[in-house]
Amino acid sequence: MATTTQQAALVETSKRLAAFQAVKDHLLPEYTRIGIGSGSTVVYVVEAISALGPAVTSRMAFYPTGSQSEELIEAAGLNLQYISKLPAGQQLDVAFDGADEVDDDLNLIKGGGACLWQEKIVAASAKRFVCVADFRKLSPRLGTAWKKGIPIEVLPMAAPRVLDELARMGSQNPRVRPGLPGKAGAIVTDNGMWMIDAPFAPLLLPKDVEDGSETGSGTNSVWTVDALADRLIKIPGVAEIGLFYGKNGLEVAAGAQKPVAAYFGMADGTVQVKTPTTT
Ligand SMILES: O=C[C@H](O)[C@H](O)[C@H](O)COP(=O)(O)O
Questions:
Q1: CA 41–ligand 1 middle distance (angstroms)
Q2: A Pfam family in this protein (predicted)?
Q3: Could you give the domains of the chain?
Q4: Predicted interface score ipTM higher than 0.95
Q5: 189: CA distance to ligand 1 center in Å?
Q6: Of all atoms in ligand 1, which is nearest to the CA of residue 112?
């Protein structure tokens, strides 16, 4: 049986494999505007981009999703640009980001590292959003493997009211995410908000409710991804939610929250690619 160290090394190798393949497939030399997400997997995305060399990357501008990816871009010597400077009517060519869980329909849970609001804006600003992950993130339904709950970014003064509403909706023990060890109080996001983690029973897909035996609209605390997300985003005090859902990434050139492809580094050293047409 693999030791904890061996397992950790396998996960890192898997992330790196997926990142290099995703960049190879989706970063075309003619692209000029690239979104860079947050988290530990994106580190390998930036490594893969840097490996292309200045001949390719010097004409490109890289748009971060928060302080971590901003530092990553700068440390790699890539050109940093901000989504706030992207002119109206313009789009990023592609955006790469990680995920905490990916379901059969390419809905995502994101925000495990407290980044989701800027991530969603950058992903939805891209013509193509590409997700990069390791085998642990591949799951038939959201909430199957990721048990910590759906990350929800909230205005701090609204947190108690949001927690009440989440409990009414059937979330089991929703709570404000504490700060890192040594820091008193709640974690504070790049946007000055707090993060709530709201566990729900595994989220259904449209195909699960086709026969009418289940509505997925919150009865008995059972939700489809879309019904839950549509409800969560309307709670007063919620700034943004860590469900990336809605239109298929291939159906809309930009504005989609779902990826056009999700790359998973597998434990056997292969890379599994899921696209809307293969799910
Ligand atoms: O809040 C963090 C972001 O949503 C990350 O993209 C997500 O948590 C995945 O992170 P990692 O690549 O470290 O697993």
A1: 7
A2: Rib_5-P_isom_A
A3: 4-140+245-278 (3.40.50.1360), 150-242 (3.30.70.260)
A4: yes
A5: 13
A6: 8
Q: What is the pLDDT of residues 5-44, one digit of tens each?
A: 999 999 999 999 999 999 999 999 999 999 999 999 999 9
Best mutation site among 38, 67, 96, 115 for ligand 1, i.e. most ligand atoms within 8 A of its Cβ? 38
Average pLDDT, the chain: 95
Annotated catalytic sites, by residue? Answer: 119
Quickly state the pLDDT bin for 78 (edges 50, 70, 90). Answer: very high
- Specify the ligand 1 atom closest to the Cα of 134: 14
**Residues with a CB atom less than 6 Å from ligand 1:** 37-41, 97-100, 110-116, 119
Atom 10, ligand 1: residue with shortest CA distance: 39
SS3 annotation, the chain: CCCHHHHHHHHHHHHHHHHHHHHHHHCCCCCCEEEECCCCCHHHHHHHHHCCCHHHHCCCEEEECCHHHHHHHHHCCCCECCHHHCCCCCCECEEEECCCEECCCCCEECCCCCCCHHHHHHHHCECCEEEEEEHHHECCCCCCCCCCCEEEEECHHHHHHHHHHHHHCCCCCCEECECCCCCCCECCCCCCCEEEEECCCCCECHHHHCCCCCCCECHHHCEEHHHHHHHHCCCCCEEEECEECCCCCCCCCCCCCCCCEEEEECCCCCEEEECHHHC
